[in-house]
Amino acid sequence: MKSEEEIFNKIIGAIQAIGDIGATIDEISEVVPLERHTMSKYLNHLRADGRLSYKQIGRAKVWFVSKAPLQHIFRLKEEEKTYTEKIFSRILSDMPEGVLILDFDYNILFMNRYLSSLYDDCLGQKYYSAFFGYSQDPTGISALIDGKEEEVESHVADKKGRNLDIKARRVENPDGSFSIIAIIRNVTETVRNETRIRTLSELYRLLGEAINRSYTIDHLCSAILKDLRDVINFEMGDILIYDPDADMLSSYAQIGYPSEDETSEVDDWKRTIAMETIHNREVFLFDCSVNKEKESTIAQAAYRLAQGYKLQNVYAIPLRTKGDIHGALLILSGSQRAIADEDRSLLEGISEVIAGGIAKIKAEEEWRLKASVIEILSHPIFMTNREGKMTYVNPAFLELLGYTEEKDVLGHSYSEFWENGSEDVVKIVYGTGSWEGVLLAAKKDGSEYKTRLSASLIIGKKGPLQLVAIAEPEERDRNND
User: Fold this and answer.
1) Would 85-186 and 198-364 be classified into the same CATH topology?
2) Taking the domains of the chain in order of start, what are their residue ranges?
3) CA nearest to 333, candidates 400, 288, 392
4) What's the pTM value of the predicted model, to 2 decimals?
C-alpha cells in the first residue's frame, strides 16, 4: 500500500491539474482511484492540515489547493471549522498586534482584528495604498517579493500619522507559491513618550546651561524663552518676575512679538494674566475655540490679548519652587501652532526648574549687591570659614594691614594677622554666634596696634556658613596715626 504522503501528493496534484475552478470528489477519484469514503477521509485530513479547502455548491463540495490557509480559515463559518481551526482563528484575531498576509502582488489576503480596527476591512486592496496612501511600497516588503531578502524590518508612519513597527517574512504556501506574513505594531504612543523624554532631556540641558551662564535675571529669562521656543512650537512668550514683598512684577523678558512698540494696554493685559496666575497659584489656559464665557478678570484679559494678536491659546504657568513663587511664564500661540497637550505637560514639568534658576540668580544678584556695598565701606571687613581660613577681605582691611594684594591674605589663617588670643575667637563665634573685643593687629611692616573686632556668624539653611568681622583701630591708636 502506498504511503499516506504519496496519496496526499497525488490528490493535491490532481486538483492542481484540473485547474483553478476546483475539483469535485468524483473528478479527483478519476485520477486517484480510491473508494469514495476513503477519498473523503483523505480530503478532510488535508483540509485539517490547511493544505486543502472547499466551497459548498448545493450538496456538493468543490475542492481547492489552499494558497492562503489563514484566509481560508477565517472565511469558514464557525460550524464548518475544526476544533484546531477555531482555536487558531481566535488566537490570531485577538492578538494584541497586527497580523497581515499578502500575496506577491501586494494584495491583502488576510488581516486580523487588530488591523481591522485601524483600517477597516481592506481585503483584496493593495496594502501600501490601504495603509499608507502611497502608490508603491514604503516598507521594504518589495525586497521579499523580489527574493532579495527573507526578512525585513521597518518603521514608518501610516496615512493617519500612526507610527508602525513592521516585521515581515516570505513563507511558502502548500501549493509551492509564496506569501508575505507581516507582524505590525502601532507604536505611536511609545514613540510619543520617547520623543517627550528626549525633548524634556534637551530642555533640561538647555535650561541648565542658561542658568549656569546667566548673570542677571533678564539675561536668564531671555535665554530660557529662546530655548523654549527652539524646542516647543509657539509664537510669543513672556517671563514676568514677581516681587512678593511689594506684590508686583519687577522684571520682564519677552520673545516673538512684532517689532513695533507694545502698547501699555497690551502690557496691562499680560501683567493682569501673570498676576492672577501667581495669586491663584495654578496654571491658566485660555482657548479661543472653547472659552466663550469671559466673566473673570483673567479671562477678559486673555480674550483681549488673543483678539489683539489673533491667538488660539493664552497659557500661563506660575513659576514656583519650594513653595515660593518667583514669577509667571506666558506662552501665546495662534491657530497654526496651538499648544499641544504634550507641550503643556513639558512646560509644567520644567516650570520648577525655571523658578529654581530665577531664585538662584536673585540670590546671586542680592549677594553681589551686598558684596559691592561691603567693597566700598570704609570699615575693614573680613570673612573666614570654620577652620579660620580667610575667605574674603575688603580693600579697607587690606589697607589696615598694609597689604595691596588679596592673594597675600586669602587662604591664610586669620590668626596670622593678630597677636593675642585670636585663636579662640573662631571657636567662640561658632559656639555663641558672636564676639567683640580688642586684639593686637600685626601689620605687614611688623608694626602693631590695638584693634576692636566685632565678629558674627552667618547662618544658612543648613547651618553656620561663615564668620564675618569688622575691625576698627582703637581711638588712641587712630589719633597716633
Assistant:
1) yes
2) 4-65, 85-186, 198-364, 377-480
3) 288
4) 0.53
DSSP at 32: S
Model pLDDT for residues 391-432, shown as the tens digit of each residue: 888 888 888 889 989 889 999 988 888 876 666 788 888 888
- Could you tell me which of 134, 76, 68 has the C-alpha nearest to residue 102? 68
Q: Which three cell numbers stand for residue 236?
A: 510669543
- Contact indicator for 174, 156 with CB cutoff of 8 Å: no
Alpha carbons 127 and 105: distance in angstroms, whole number:
10
Confidence of residue 476 (pLDDT cuts 50, 70, 90): very low
DSSP state of 94: T
- Fold held by 377-480: Beta-Lactamase (3.30.450)
Does CATH place domain 4-65 in 1.10.10.10?
A: yes
pLDDT for res 372: 62
- Say which range, 39-48, 74-83, 168-177, has the weakest mean pLDDT: 74-83
pLDDT band with cut points at 50, 70 and 90 for residue 473 = confident
Q: Which residues contact 17 (CB under 8 A, 6 or more apart)?
A: 31
What is the C-alpha separation between 125 and 102, in angstroms, rounded?
10
Tell me how far apart the alpha carbons of residues 14 and 36 are, in angstroms, rounded to a whole number: 15
In the chain, DSSP finds a helix count (H) and a strand count (E) of 16, 17
> Which ranges constitute the DSSP H helices of 323-385?
341-376
Q: Is the pLDDT of residue 479 over 50?
A: no
CA distance 415 to 441: 10
Looking at CATH, the fold of the domain delimited by 85-186 is given as: Beta-Lactamase (3.30.450)
- Burial of residue 131, with CB atoms counted within 10 A of its CB: 0-12 exposed, 13-18 middle, 19 or more buried: buried
Looking at the structure, give the CATH architecture of the domain made up of residues 198-364.
Answer: 2-Layer Sandwich (3.30)
pLDDT at 463: 67
**Each residue's pLDDT tens digit, 228-253:** 888 888 889 999 999 888 899 887 88
**Element (H or E) spanning 309, and its range?**
helix 297-309
